[in-house]
Predict the structure of HPS6 biosis of lysosomal organelles complex 2 subunit 3.
Amino acid sequence: MKRAGALRQVSDFSDFVSGRRLRELLSQRGPGEAPRHVQTSPDGQHLLLLLRGRPVLQPQVLAFQRLGTGAGDLERSWQPPQPPITGLLFLQSPAALTSWVLAVVWEQGRTEVWGFVPALGWQLQQTLELCHGARARIVSICSQGSSLVWCEERPPSDAHLDPGRGAFRYCICTRALEVGEQGAHLGAMRIVVHNSPQYQVLASPQHVFLVPTGATFASVSTFLLIWCPREAKVTIVAPSGRFVHSEVLHSSDFKKLVFGSVGLLLPVAPLDIHTCALSSCGGLLVLSTQGTVHLVQPDGTWRHVYDLGGSGLAQGDPVPLKAFGSTLTCVLAGVLYLIDLTSGRLIEKKLLSTREVHFLESPSREEEIQLLTPTGIYCFGFSSPEEGGRPEPTLVEMVFEEACKYYQRRSLSSSQLTVEKLKKGDMFQAPIALSSILQHSLPETYAKLLSTLSTDLQSYLSLELLKSCLVGASESEVDRCCEELVEQEVSRLLRLDLDRENLAYLNAVFNSFPKASWKAIRSSLQLQQNGDGLLVARATSDLWKKVLGGPVPNWSQPEEMGLNGVVPLFELICGSLHRFKPKWLPSFVELTQQYVGASWTYSTKEGPEGGVPLYKRALAVLDRQRLRTASDRELEIELLLCSARPKAVLQAVQLLIRLRRWQRVVEAAEKFSKLSPLLNKEIFTTLLAQFAQHRDLDPYLAALWELCPADLTVSDILSIVLQHLPSSEGDPAPFCAGGAPLTLALLKPLLHKVAQSGRWVLWGLSPPEPFTLTYLIPWVSPLNQGLKP
């Protein structure tokens, strides 16, 4: 963690040519004078002051150079009715005698280009006119490389124009200004946006920010614009409504630009902006009137940085705000704040003896903070832990704070809450701040902490990068980004303890992104078919426990839809399988049962199932579907069969009989009769009863007779057959009116099989065909009485 060093004075203005006068100007402010504007030249050898609102003929622009730089200070004043100065800009001039020039820009567009030559001092190189119209007025201007960008007011010719239309009398213009040995040359003017409201323009190396001002029409002060000249793209950002939209700049008309977003932007609250400044990363720092600082990235991402805790700032009160590298500096009510932009943590806070403070650019070191006050120039430096001194225990404090905040999650034992326990419980609430601390300076003492959290920090970093890509993605890339985002989030959640909060969040992810969630869970479990077409999974033991963990919902109350609306992970996976890969659902339940059988010993309750078989939980997911289809009925049968439970298998066989799918009936009977003699007897008895009622099973009698239990006697067989014979009222025996009758010839192979096994059977029975079983009635009674052959 970087630490701010002591505030040290680097200049008392004695190293400037006119240091005493500089001190006097900074110490005094006449009545009615506006706040001073102070900036340094790119080489740091010149200090410029812009004094607005001074009496006539007094200098308004003054430049003070350090001793040894050369001769000649710059003092400029202008006769009335010269309009006020809009800005002082330093422009690059690689082809000129110096590497930079100073451009002084007035409201009406007149621009003076000044250069400094050590032997001659300040020299006026050229005077230019930026604007074309005589009534034009520049309200804000900035420079980006060799180009100027400004907001220009073009008053309408109709003096009685209504205020609504008059609010859109501005335009955003750009023009190249090239400075060479032959002087300065203006390029052609280009209007980026016309019919625009008033904006303050600020330029980073790649983007231009158009920020609403106090004079901006209220209905369009709810958002700001970010223009990228290289890509000819404009991004509309409305942080209050969480709205970001980017589009190629096809039309320069403001109303056409925002027309497609009007419905979303109208209900959004206006932006609360007091002060703006550019950050070193190309973003925009925004200070609200309530003292809250946000960072707006070029892609439209809006991130909270720090809350200074100020009570309502007036628009006229100057608040110095500047970024030095990754450090945000701000002076509010005489207090200097140093804030880490990356983590949003306060580095240091110092009380200053003056409120007249200006931040200066440091040409030597980006991270070095320079302050100009009426008494001199002061500097802040940063020291790393290796430079001596014991580092601040910020990291230890963070772990301690998290431990205290989540103390209730500890067990009631005396065990110490370690870093590993915090990580396992997902108790670190500030991953970005923590990663910043670990990245910039990590003492050797915390090496174990870094290694413990490295995976999580990398995951959070990837997640943040993906979110940034999603903001700027085209419509064709949104689906891919969403899938990747959901995959990372589901993977992260599956590494945590699925408490109620995390499970509710996982439910929300599955409900919002069902297809992406299915792909994510399939990837996490590594579900796939092998070469034999069987479903396999390569999930870890911990992941299986999470799949099977948690209480089982009570599906008897459909309105609850689970545990107060939260569905366990197993049910979520079953729902995804049913929706996107229904044929895999029975195999998945079977895989889960195999893991349960290998990992838990069954007692009164079935391990993680909580007493409810997995196939019943999967069936409950099917029952929640409002419209049951034929494929759902097939899935129900497969789920019953894959459970291999006697009651479930019998239920499946009965469903197949009801559907008259006799081949599947016989196949299921052959497969599951081997599980137990009792199940074999139940299945055979059920099928023998069906055989007695109709002739649909006749093609499968050979397979059916093989299933006959060893303990079944002739009397048992005949009793079952006779009990289930169809009613023959009105039909003369032995023939039936409809269909082929049940004959002794069909039953004879079974009776012969029982005879060979030495069980009770009728001997010497060779009746003519057709011979119905009703003729066997006389033999049933003696057989039941125990008559032996």
Observations:
- Residues 406 and 412 are 13 Å apart (CA to CA).
- The chain has a mean pLDDT of 78.
